[in-house]
Amino acid sequence: MPEEIVIVGGGICGLSIGWFLARSGYPVTILERGGAGLAATWAAAGMLAPHAEAEPGEEGLLPLLRASRGMWADFAGELEAAAGMSVDYREEGTLVVALDRDDAARLRFLYDFQKRQNLPTEWLSGEEARRLEPHLSRRVVAAIYSPLDHQVDNRKVARALIEAFRRAGGRLREHTEVTGIVIEADRVLGVRLQRGFLEARVVVLAAGAWSAQIPGLPETVRPPVRPVKGQMLAVQMPPEAPLLRHVVWGREAYLVPRRDGRLLIGATVEEKGFDASLTAGGIFRLLRGAWEILPGIDECPIVEMWVGFRPGSRDDAPILGPTAVEGLIMATGHYRNGILLAPITAYAIHQLIVHGALPEIARPFTLDRFQRTRVVQAMSAENESARP
Ligand code: GLY
Fold first, then answer.
1. Is 228 in the pocket of ligand 1 (CB under 6 A)?
2. What confidence tens digit (pLDDT) does each residue in 288-334 have?
3. How far is Cα 325 from Cα 272, in angstroms, rounded to an integer?
4. Nearest CA to ligand 1 atom 2
5. Please, what are the domains in the chain?
6. Which of 8, 84, 188, 386 could form a disulfide with 327 if both were Cys (CB 3.0 to 4.6 A apart)?
């Protein structure tokens, strides 16, 4: 029997979509060129922070981010039950801190924006912030506290999704490269592999930063996705006396404490293609940024350093839903929000496949928004040149 649904990419979005579909009884195969959950999903920090990270210019994306945040607690609970393992969902919340007056002015601007958007954040003095986190630097003069911005251990989520997907009857084929998406008369027929062809009624492209490189996509349905490099590191805190419980954002770095005492410090944002090198400057700036906020890391051993590639789209928003090719569906371009957006991505693509339509909230994020922009740009250029 031909496989009905093929998902290209075994990251958090591909796995979540696969799990939702498999548990609804659909035959699903996920194809992953490396190991599942070992690219951007593994490199991420697991912050579920639409409120603390909200910035002017992101108003259009905010409802999707907030809706997915609202789904996370249930998603984590169901996943833990389905996989029989914990994903360390943590609810302490997030602090964004300021270290001097300029920083505090920047934070106040951000806070005013958050209040205009009715986001549930609170302004704290330095003292109040230190009452929540006693090891914060004396230099912290103010903070925004966002109690609903939680975190999850993204690596555990990936392991749980693999298990839940398999238990639901899904087929995961790792180290399997898709050498072409096969399309005929504007209809997807399946995918070509190094050995053989896999017939499919539906192909979901969820290949993260690699999505634009999959051969066989006509230009009109090639998603405008590029890699945005992020360097990160982890230090080991004493697990019995962790320096931090909340996620903390500063000007140059964010800090994410894990239950095992690891403290993640991230991340650079670099337009360097798929360059996977760790650089002295990148790691130096992260360490300086982290040390300024939390001087206690001074004695902590560095236990890991790594690089990940965020799938950045042209407008930093995800690309979700149908395309001009029948049966070809996009679930890519999640940029800095792949972990946060996994539940709503899975829900939206599941709805599309099962009921034939994207939920309202996901409709602004279809691929054709870029074509619409091109048409508007071309029309205004034409009007411009027609002016006397
Ligand atoms: N969402 C965190 C990052 O992109 O670094």
1. no
2. 999 999 999 999 999 999 999 999 999 999 999 999 999 999 999 99
3. 31
4. 336
5. 5-57+61-67+154-224+314-381 (3.50.50.60), 94-147 (no CATH), 225-311 (3.30.9.10)
6. 188
